[in-house]
């Protein structure tokens, strides 16, 4: 796929806009920005596990939504906004240690909506969650 970004984007920019947010609190690290994808990871630790020691499903959705939302936000022209309409997640395998790494790629980039698919994997490269987010694209006011 061709480069989808309409605004400057890098791991440094994504980290900067995440300061003071849930992303920073949970220990999210942006790893790579390609022509049509963003990759980030979260640690499996006391901030991100459920009481049973597994990576929390809600935290999986936080990672997925962050990646999809960032993808949409940086692939619209300056002045436009991307807001979430719907997100779903299928939890396939638990993680009890290490990192969960997610990669978001666009499925559809339209004039008024975008759809992004996010795959989350554990350190062994096993798929732990698949998610899809639909974003509404709002014109400048």
UniProtKB/TrEMBL annotation:
The keyword Glycoprotein does not apply. The keyword Lyase does not apply. Residues 52-129 form the Thioesterase domain. It is an enzyme of class 3 (hydrolase). SUPFAM superfamilies: Thioesterase/thiol ester dehydrase-isomerase. InterPro entries: HotDog_dom_sf, PAAI_dom, Thioestr_dom. GO terms for cellular component: cytosol. One of its GO terms (molecular function) is 1,4-dihydroxy-2-naphthoyl-CoA thioesterase activity. Its EC number is 3.1.2.-. Signal peptide: none annotated. It comes from the Bacteria. Keywords: Hydrolase. Belongs to the thioesterase PaaI family. This is Esterase. The lineage of its organism: Bacteria, Pseudomonadati, Pseudomonadota, Betaproteobacteria, Burkholderiales.
């Amino acid at each position: 796929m061709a480069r989808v970004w309409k605004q400057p984007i890098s791991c440094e920019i994504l980290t900067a806009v995440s300061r003071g947010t849930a992303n920073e609190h949970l220990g999210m690290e942006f790893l790579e920005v390609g022509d049509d994808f963003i990759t980030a990871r979260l640690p499996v630790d006391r901030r991100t596990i459920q009481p049973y020691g597994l990576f929390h499903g809600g935290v999986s959705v936080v990672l997925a939504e962050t990646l999809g939302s960032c993808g949409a936000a940086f692939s619209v022209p300056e002045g436009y906004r991307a807001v979430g309409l719907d997100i779903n997640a299928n939890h396939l395998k638990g993680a009890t240690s290490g990192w969960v790494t997610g990669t978001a790629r666009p499925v559809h980039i339209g004039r008024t909506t975008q759809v992004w698919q996010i795959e989350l994997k554990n350190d062994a490269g096993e798929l732990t969650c698949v998610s899809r987010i639909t974003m509404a694209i709002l014109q400048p006011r």
